[in-house]
Amino acid sequence: MKNFAKIMAGAAVAFVAVLGLAGCGKQASGTKLTPVTVGGIGSDYQTWQHIAKTKQAKDMGLKISVKEVSVGKQLNDETANGDIDVNAFQSYAFLKSYNKETTGKKVAALGTTYLEPVGIYSKKYKSVKDLPNGASVGISSNPANGARELLLLQSAGLIKLKKGFSTFGTLRDITSNPKHIKIKEIDEDSAARFLPDFDAVLISNTIALEAKLNVLKDSIYHEHASASTRGNINVLATTASKKNDATYKKLVKLYHEPAIQKWIKQEFKGTKVEVKRPLSYLK
Questions:
Q1: Which string of DSSP letters, residue by residue, matches 52-78?
Q2: CATH architecture, range 119-223
């Protein structure tokens, strides 16, 4: 009986030990996640909604909540003021333009994400060469994106811009316009709606996707990745005071996870070209 008691006591100890290990395992798997709020527009909002639900986000210890904001300046304002931790929607050139124009707090880039080509679209013509003399062309009224689109018109051979044309260039910097095209600034968020009213309209890919347009197939001309378009690379951004925050930096790494990139390429038909470059490349 004594031996039987010893055996039962040993079994009880072993059982308690197993429960203890199980408890430890449960605690480890229930590690507290760090909350972070990401603000997005259009397809970027959609992308981060997906990322927030992934195993990769949890593995990095992140609990991501995603907020949709429809206007870029408002999203930067909320980020600069700390109402949103990180935003995903803008090119580096847009960020610089915002910081130049705002009198309040600034935003800063955390890391690069992708290049999303701007396209020239037309319901009337199949090539930029077909655009007639005096053609009406709509470009963004946003200063940074308007300058970007003027550079695209130059690349397409429709105009020439003064030497040294920069992110802050304007229509006044056009030095040659052989076809006398009439360029009008329009609200970029509604750019696709203007297609019936113009001979051609320049549309950012975020807006084009919302209008069910694929820049690689539906535009008559579009941007290509090169040294001259590096300012057009999109970034994740936060308030300037948090640009070195380790948690926020994790979001950059998370975006470039292979499984997440595979989903993005499939979901957006290759129109978001991954760019994994240091921030120094943009400057």
A1: HTSHHHHHTTEEEEEEE-S-HHHHHHH
A2: 3-Layer(aba) Sandwich (3.40)
